[in-house]
Amino acid sequence: MPTMTNRKFLLGFALLVACALGPGAPDRDCVTRDLVIGLEAFPPGGNSTSVNRSSAPIVDNAYRGVYYVEGPTTYKVARFPNANGAKRDFEQRKEHDLGWPRSESLAPKATVYRSGVADQQYLLCDEGLCIYFARYQEYTTMVAANMGPNMTGEALNKVIMEVDRKMTECLAKPVLK
Q1: Domains of the chain (ranges plus CATH)?
Q2: Tens of pLDDT, residues 87-101
């Protein structure tokens, strides 16, 4: 049987977790699998995987890979229980990515699109790889592209614009509750 001290500890811990997580995400009619962008957004000449979906205990996510001679381009969308979880994921990912020798100054000149809807976003590149990561409320999206003759700066820009279009449509839908 729990002692009074144990009860206070458990109650305090529960309150701490509830405050850290924040309010839950709204009930949306947006399934992560349906938020994966279509093949028409990617440049021709690649071999695609089907849309894959996995549910971690806390995060629902879906992803697709398109393989070119220069290497794969992958796209992933994840939905967290709330915006705080997505924000933490964004900040951890950015900190990790900034630890590599990548910078926005190495992004191809044609890759200039920036979302007006995303809460947070960045595009980092090294000599052959660009990573675009964005947070839309409780969702995060990532495009990791090996740059080359198929995946040019212009092609990457088109992919990023399609990601933003899909996420904008999702967030514009009425909340179900």
Answers
A1: 23-172 (3.40.1000)
A2: 999 999 888 877 766
